[in-house]
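Appendix B, record 7
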Amino acid sequence: MSSSSNQAMVPTTVLNESQWSQINQAIAPLNKEQLTWMSGYLAGLAHNQPDLGSQVVAQESTQAQASLTILYGSQTGNAKGLAQEYKEKAESQGIAATLVNMADYKPKQLKNESHVVIVVSTHGEGEAPDDAVELHEFLASKKAPKLAGLKFAVLGLGDSSYEFFCQTAKDFDQRLEALGATRIEDRVDCDVDYEAEAESFVARITDKVKEELAANSSSQVVAMPGVARPNLSVATQQYNKKNPFTATLSESQKITGRDSIKDIRHIEISLEDSGIQYQPGDALGVWFTNDQQLSKEILSLLSIDGATAVELGGQSISVLDALTDKLELTQSYPTFVKAYLEAAKNDQLRALYDDKAKLREYLSARQIADVVREFPSAISAQQLVDALRPITPRLYSIASSQADVEDEVHLTVALVEYDAHGHQHQGGASGFLSKRLQEGGEVKVFVEKNDNFRLPENPDTPVIMVGPGTGIAPFRAFMQERAEQEAEGKNWLFFGNPNYTQDFLYQTEWQRFVKDKVVDKVSLAFSRDQKEKIYVQHRLLEQGQEVFEWLEQGAHFYVCGDANYMAKDVNDALIAIVEKHGNKSHEEAEQYVTELRRAKRYQKDVY
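Structure tokens (predicted):
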């Protein structure tokens, strides 16, 4: 039954439009079993609080006037985490807050809101994260309503190394203003080391809305005797980015051939005694340390003694330990050049910094050591540390199902290693996991939940998976899970890499999945095995008729891997398939794909 037909049956004397919309948003992700549980839970509430209905009616006008809604759009989980933290902060100040993923939010509800805080990331070339696309497009369309009664604030997350830094946040901020909404606070654009700036933003917003909203707060937590709450692993909640679990590397095995142009590793990490739980589709956050030789080289270039003490995060530490354990060295970023210039006073570097396009191009092919080699200067240990930004953990799609591997977690890691500018370069986390960390060594990890990349609730639902290169990782987890479930749903994998003999990742496992009838179809695209390069999007188009038939049968469509090229090409191919085999116009095909995404039948895990 549609939500509109449900709404028509609800007397307006019981629930106002805003309350009913919030209820619909809350229950939208629930399956049949969860809805049944909720109906009993709410019936219990009504039985124990017989005057609750009259309280709702009495408070109707007050709650409709002012409430706080926190909307988040998150690609990797950071925006979601910040939004959750803000909700907790608001509630601790007596403010009732509703937290909603933009993917689950009905855009037309905006006209009924009084206070909205948006926390949103940007990925790719200034693109909105998947769960923010619909709301982002709605606000830019002619359908967007006037929002003169809305007060808002926007917190953006991004990486200043990219040209379109925090572009999605800027779009939301500008569009809401154009629609007549009033800012509570100026937009804040956070770089990768966002914690302090975001915390300050949250404190300022809370102070500004507290007096207005706290008086209208009527949220409460009711404990029902004999009713169990959904059980989340305490350990999963305990271990997080700020408090990772110290795990052990069990295995690191190269799974590409001797002559492959890629070095891809299968990594196994023990979570024994942690109690950590994860689901297929989740990511593992990995904290790493830099190569100490790289740290020493940078210090030598700058004539800095590694034993020199510096202040970092309120602690005194040697500059060598700071560079090795705490600071980002394998990625370059404009904020380093800006701070370095203040100490270096180099005219050539200044000219480069002033040309933003040239600077981005220059930094994209260089690490911190390359910049220092080219522009050596007399700079103090403290100035160097202040110019560098903190290490941030790398997120890897989990390549295992816990139902199969129990207290382990598996990753598929491509080693970043190359020669450039006369020196060898290595990725920070990939080099740490693949080369510097020995089996039995310790690694600090945490699970990053990804509720936007999940297997269908119904195990009979067909699944199409597009995962070239290391994008195959979560689909290995998907198939392990479905094998353990003895799921009846059909499964189709599209996989690509350069060469069949060198780069067919987990080949024997996929052959076993096919033999055991877990996987129904595998379509391969090895780009360098023939004169014309063939990629996964070409295989999709070749088999477009059957792909469309699967979609019409209710299949869920998943994409994992490169965001800048592959994911866009696959999206274009999907629209072309729907247009051709669904006999639709291009606009109708685009709408069909949008509906897939809205129904969470088209999900992406891209980077």
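Remarks on this record: The chain is about 40% helix and 20% strand. Confidence is low (pLDDT under 50) at residues 1-14, 47-64, 218-232.
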